[in-house]
Amino acid sequence: MLIPYIPDDAPFSGDQRAWLSGFLAGLHSRMAMPTAPGAQADASAISASVPLQILYGSQTGNAESLAQDAADLARQHGLDPHVSSLDAVDMNALSAMRRLIVVTSTYGQGEMPDNAQLFWDAVAADSAPRLEGLYFAVMALGDTSYDGYCKAGKDIDARLEALGATRSADRLDCDVEYEDAAAAWLSSTVPAIAAVDGGGGGGGAPAAAATKPAKAASKRSPWNRKNPYRATVLANRVLSGPESSKEVRHFAFALGDSGLAYEAGDGLGVKPVNNPELVDALIGRLRVVPDTTVTVKGSEQRLDELLTHSYEIGVPSMDLIEAVAERTGDEELAHVLATGDREALDAWTWGKDVLDVLALDETLAFDPAELLELLRPLQHRVYSISSSPLAHEGTVHLTVASVRYRSAERDRGGVCSTFLADRVAEGESAGVFLSANKSFRLPTDDDAPVIMVGPGTGIAPFRAFLHERRARNASGRNWLFFGDQHRAHDYIYEDELNSLSRDGILTRLDLAFSRDHTEKVYVQHRMRESGRELYAWLEEGGHFYVCGDATRMAKDVESALHDVIVEHGGRTADQAEDYLAELKRSKRYLRDVY
Fold first, then answer.
1. Judging by DSSP bridges, how do beta strands 248-254 and 229-238 pair with one another?
2. 588 in a domain, yes or no?
3. Do 363 and 401 have their domain in common?
4. Boundary of a domain, candidates 435, 461, 476
5. Which alpha helices (H) appear in 165-257, and where do they start and end?
6. β-bridge partners, 172
7. How far apart are CA 97 and CA 20, in angstroms?
8. Spatial separation of the C-alpha atoms in residues 158 and 180, rounded to whole Å
């Protein structure tokens, strides 16, 4: 058999030419290998060269972790997995792929995660390549309590099919309790996609070990949302002033012997415990005693323990709302549900908990087991870590705003923020685990300038960044935009920031306290005021970071950044969009927003 060569004038892109050259070289090498008389070529040698691309879109790390699970399983089936974010892949590389698994979360109200947006823009464009040679499968992560459930995964799945790709497995849409469903899907999907062209481990036992050394399975911490580490609280103190309209607290946890290792930019998951007063009130509303037993997943458990540790009672589920609407015939609620108006539903549910929903009709009766089936599992909350492991060895810090309000003659609070503030004193412990965020990292180049925009508790990861840069003796300049309502009451970490400025770590600090002026001033206004220098930092290789509210602040900051590029870069609006896209593509514009 003759091995073809690639003429210089063949109509291939650089990426396609490189891939094809490598494939042909590998084929030539395998044909030249001697085999025992009468023996067939070793199937494992073939499978060892069969690549599987695994792409993820992840905002908080769940999709990335599942992508690593897929890679570990792929190695067992003799494949060579390559894991990367969706944005790391261009259309030339996509068109050259044969096997692909996509794992993506959905962000906000049906949006792509930050590290998937550029991929989606490219694949959704009219210029996207045809993909008839691609076999793919998509796992979508979402939350049924939000609009646009799993929309990012659904959109990518549909678009790949529209471009001619072949679906190797039906898309899996995962709600917040995704682990079991995801594991089952991967266990059937990886062998199916491995069997494309007869490669890999087919549909039966895993393929024989590859001739080249297999990569070790990714090392996982034993601590996760199902099994959090009990971390002792070393500090629980208020940062905001006594006259502030907010209550912002600083928490420090001891990592002890957990083995938890984090990086600046990561998040920390906290497993909350429900307010005992709300638990008692809800049990009273059900007209049962606290030690009533309920059978859950085949075992009998106490109702008070389940409502305290296992179910969301601070936020009503859609299943509960719909069931109550059906049973009570409440006109207002029925109208809101019938219109399908998400904003109207959000307005109706704002500030309400499970007890409020049941209060629509005091005669309405639910059996405890029936009620539990309508509730959602109690979810962890993830907070941006505000410490550096180099500067705060053995501990991890959080900066958390305690959510408090009063409604219907009851004091209310955020499920996790008030749990930490009120019921976890210094010396006590809380269940925590690491939520890695590899898409929000300092530049590896310590000489690179860093620009950080983090009003309010959005300062958290930037406190970590500044301490990290000092511990690394980084020479790069650091610029922070920070703001809140009143300087006298809301300037958290003021002493630390002043110290970092005096030491030359914090090169520039721009402040925006909105309520201290006749007209409100926000961080985006400060950006525009310093637009010329801001653009100069970007042109010198600066990395731009944003942390905080996604609904308004982050969008306003991006709009201001776009305007700065137009005004001081001499670009058109479209050219400024391209400039921003390149910043994102090169990981020089990163966001940690919520």
1. antiparallel
2. yes
3. no
4. 435
5. 179-194
6. 139
7. 11
8. 24
